[in-house]
Amino acid sequence: MTELPAAPARILSTSVTATGTLLAIDAPVIASASAANGKFFAQWEATARDRGVENLWPAGRVDLEAVYAVSPDLIVVSATGADSARDHLARLRAVAPTVVVDYGRQSWQELAHELGQATGLAAHAQRRITAFDRHVADIKGNLILPRGQVNLISYNGPGASNPIATRGGVHGQLLRALGFDVEAPDPRWHGTADPSSDFIWAAYEFLPELRAGTTFLLRTDDAGVAEMLRDPMLANMPSVRAGQVYALGPNAFRIDYYSATEVVDRIQRLFGR
């Protein structure tokens, strides 16, 4: 981890994924890269706007002139992912101290700890995590859970990967913390060369082999639920037969503090006493 002589006051995040966690720990983010569509993630877009965070470039690009223009005293780079600026490390380090994080291998809480240490905001990070864990525990105590197991799917239909959350990934951990028993997808269904701890990137044809009685859909709202329930190929899935398919919201695929809170609150609305 890069050692800083003083706590930073002007942080540039070249990773839109890391930006959400930086905002959650009240880091002084003055500028950030955006998603590939040129927008910030919806779950924290309003927070970024309120704090005056400048949108510098979409994922996949780096504008060094813009880096110099915002005069950062700390730059955050992701080691992996579509928003990684690792290829530009040498030039970024010529501008300001630069830290590299690997959000793909961490929960948002672990990333918050790491960024808290890097920014002198470790206490802020711990307070945010503690408050979130307390919120999860409070919600868990007031849920009436469906019987049996649940699964979590990013449903994309035929001709595409349909990622299924693992028990040990960030989505599985969050649902298990709320008391759900998460079905483990068969790792042999994984259809990409890159290993993933969060998802099995399964072909559409494997979805009917899932056995859980309840399905949660990621990255969609109730329109996605209706689409899945109409899919004749999935008619014999236990959750579809029972009509127990629920959307966790359009921001639920990429979990940070803000989207995790949205998921927990949606679960409360669905299953609260």
Give the helices and strands, then pairings.
Blueprint: E1 11-13, H1 16-24, E2 29-34, H2 42-50, E3 54-58, H3 64-70, E4 74-78, H4 89-93, E5 98-101, H5 108-119, H6 122-140, E6 150-153, E7 161-165, H7 170-177, E8 199-203, E9 214-217, H8 222-230, H9 238-242, E10 245-247, H10 257-271
Parallel strand pairs: 1-2, 1-4, 2-3, 4-5, 6-9, 9-10
Antiparallel strand pairs: 7-8
Helix pairs in contact: 1-5, 5-6, 6-10
| CATH level-four homologous superfamily name of the largest domain | Nitrogenase molybdenum iron protein domain
Total domain count? 2
Please tally the β strands and state the result: 10
Span between termini: 45 Å
Reading side by side through the largest sheet, how are the strands ordered? 3-2-1-4-5
**Whole-number average pLDDT?**
96
Report what the structure shows.
The protein is α/β, with parallel strands linked by helices and 273 residues long. It has 2 domains: 11-131, 3-Layer(aba) Sandwich (Rossmann fold), CATH 3.40.50.1980; 150-271, Rossmann fold, CATH 3.40.50. It is built from 10 helices and 10 strands. α1 (16-24) packs across α5 (108-119), α5 packs antiparallel against α6 (122-140) and α6 (122-140) runs parallel beside α10 (257-271). It comes from plant metagenome. Its main location: other. It is found in: Cell envelope.
Jot down its keywords.
Bact_iron-sidero_bind; Rossmann fold; alpha/beta; 10 helices; about 270 residues; Ferrienterobactin-binding periplasmic protein FepB (TC 3.A.1.14.2); signal; 2 domains; 10 strands; ABC_transptr_periplasmic_BD
